[in-house]
């Protein structure tokens, strides 16, 4: 059972076509559900998901926050309500291609650790030259400081076990550091090249400035967590049975 978790805010125009694509990509591959966390939208993102799910005969779950709390909190809410053992995440704007999910799922048997993350890599991004330059610099700085081995941590397409995610410390913007936080627990990270598309409808919620300043603070925070993590190596366990 795969739970596809999508944080969304004011994405009514995009959520229906996106769910249709998810349904086409997974219906013959694996049992799945689509969970959309409506993060305080001013439109009918919530209702559009339910209408689309009913029309397709697709298992959907709509969750609505009273007010916007951010992408990481919406993701956390979605994972907590997921029925599947494996979580696949993607952005609600349609820039991530659901057709890439099956190839990422096919990597799961190759993972050697129970805690893992398969991270999408938008090798050929459909962004402006200036935005691509910003992302390259930010990713190099982040990888140099955190060593997560992921060239594109901002990609919304990721696959990981629900149990692994729920072990991670929660904080605002933590969705960008899932690979680093998985490694912090001794887990395994693999990268999968994925497609990248233009946004379907609407405008991005992010700007260069609101990315860069919170990114600096967040990286420092994750570095602090990493340096204080101690992973025990249990070499022996014994139990006795009650008589």
Structural class: alpha/beta
In angstroms, what separates the terminal alpha carbons?
40 Å
Number of strands: 7
Strand order of the largest sheet: 3-2-1-4-6-5-7
Shape: globular
Q: What value does the average pLDDT take?
A: 84
Rg, Cα atoms, Å: 18 Å
Q: What low-confidence regions span 5 or more consecutive residues with pLDDT below 50? A: none
Estimate the helix proportion, in percent. 25-40%
| Fraction of residues in β-strands | 15-25%
Order of helices and strands: EHEHEHEHEHEHHEH
For the biggest sheet, the summary is: 7 strands, mixed
Count of individual helical segments: 8
What report would you give on this structure?
The protein has 243 residues and is of the alpha/beta class. Helices cover 38% and strands 17% of the residues. Helix 1 runs parallel beside helix 2 and helix 5 packs parallel to helix 8 (208-227). It starts with a strand and ends in a 16-residue tail after the last helix.
Defining traits:
243 residues, alpha/beta, 7-stranded mixed β-sheet, 38% helix
Summarize the structure.
The protein is an alpha/beta fold and 243 residues long. It has eight helices and seven strands. It has a seven-stranded mixed sheet with strand order 3-2-1-4-6-5-7, sandwiched between helices.
Q: How are the elements arranged and paired?
A:
Blueprint: E1 2-8, H1 12-26, E2 32-39, H2 45-56, E3 60-65, H3 71-80, E4 86-89, H4 101-105, E5 116-121, H5 129-146, E6 158-161, H6 162-167, H7 178-184, E7 188-193, H8 208-227
Parallel strand pairs: 1-2, 1-4, 2-3, 5-7
Antiparallel strand pairs: 4-6, 5-6
Helix pairs in contact: 1-2, 5-8
